[in-house]
Amino acid sequence: MTPDMLTVPEVMAALKVSRWTVYKLIRSGELVSVLVSERCRRIPRSALDAYVARLCEEAA
């Protein structure tokens, strides 16, 4: 079963990018995230899928 909410390290692994890059995408609004608690950020699986889909559309 695929989790609905991903951690930053899980997104890093999925995209094969650095922590800095994931946070840059979040700050720019390119990747949606939610703050679950004061220090607990999660990225919805649907947001990651939408980001990858946009990348593929731009590359086409």
Radius of gyration: 11 Å
Based on helices, strands and strand pairing, what is the structural class?
alpha+beta
What's the structural domain tally? 1
**What overall geometry do the principal axes of the alpha carbons give?**
globular
Report on the biggest sheet. 3 strands, antiparallel
Low-confidence stretches: none
Pfam families: HTH_17
GO molecular function: DNA binding
InterPro entries: HTH_17, SinI_DNA-bd
Protein name: Excisionase family DNA binding protein
Write structural notes for this entry.
The protein has helices spanning 8-15, 19-28, 45-59; strands at 5-6, 34-37, 40-44. The protein is α+β, with helices and mostly antiparallel strands. The protein has one domain (5-59). It has a three-stranded antiparallel sheet with strand order 1-3-2. α1 (8-15) crosses α2. The radius of gyration is 11 Å and the shape is globular. The chain starts with a strand and ends with a helix. The mean pLDDT is 94.
